[in-house]
Amino acid sequence: MAQFNELRPQFMKAVRTAPYLARDDERQLTVRWKDKKDDQALHKLAHAHMRLVIAIAARFRHYGLPLADLIQEGHVGLLEAAARFEPDREVRFSTYATWWIRAAIQDYVLRNWSIVRGGTSSNQKALFFNLRRLRARLARHGDVAPSASFAQISTALGVSLRDVELMNARLSGPDVSLNAPVMESEGGSEERGDFFVDERPLPDEMAASHIDSGRRVLWLRDALAKLTDREALIMRTRMLSEEGATLESLASRLGVSKERVRQIEARALEKLRRTLVDCHPDEFVRA
Question: Are 190 and 197 in contact (CB under 8 A)?
């Protein structure tokens, strides 16, 4: 009973002393609540079934959530069952309420067990709540390789092998904060989140850079068309080539001195600058 120590003694005493309901008494209370909305009848019905809520909540204690919270969620499920119960179906209320209590607790566990949302489909929920049990059952039958046991669980629950592997990884360890330190250094401690930083430009920055680069290529092409053939040759071989021609090689090619090549290059650069500034004043600053 150590698992119930966190519950208030007064609450546990009230639960233990709650009377068990005979079938006829149970039916009378459910009819009074359904037909007359008798709050006293609902209170007696809920009080008598809190043992059932506690028993079901205790089965989910190993997920690391407070038992008091599990019981509270189970009580919500119990009240939902009372609101939906049909006395004329001749079914015991406890039988009907068990499903709603368990469903409410399972939903609470799925919402709070991890900050990562999971188990949204019925198959995923079945996998989440049955993986440990099936894995333990297979282990009791002898040494079974993880891959083989995962395959058997996948078949038994009707889910993919990949889903079994991912769920097993999730259940193998708790959530880890990105602010948790991973190593100590002279300047302080490194956090896990520090290793997730992407130094590359953002997608919108990359798109803008690509668009701007394309536009500037067109502007430069138009500006080069306004140069003389010799000026354009020097610009392309000196400035726009990966190798970058030397003054000596251009001087020999054009039959002029290195100084003359330097002068033509300076004049061509000035022409390009003026053309770009005149044609696109919003993009280029005048000197």
Answer: no
Whether the CA torsion 172, 174, 178, 181 is positive or negative: it is negative
8 Å CB contact between 220 and 232: no
Judged against a pLDDT cut of 50, whether residue 287 lies above it is answered with no
Find out whether 78 and 95 touch, Cβ atoms under 8 Å: no
Q: How many CA atoms lie within 13 A of 194 on its CB side?
A: 10
d(C-alpha 210, C-alpha 257), whole Å: 40
281: which DSSP letter?
Answer: T
Place of tokens 């209170």: 43
| pLDDT(237) > 70 | yes
256 within some domain? yes
User: Whole-model pTM above 0.70?
Assistant: no
CA gap 227, 50 in Å, rounded: 92
How many residues are there in the chain?
287
> Which of 134, 155, 173 is where one domain is finished?
173
Phi, psi of 51 (to 5 degrees): -60, -40
Residues 17 and 105 placed together within one structural domain of the fold: yes
What single letter denotes the amino acid at residue 171?
L
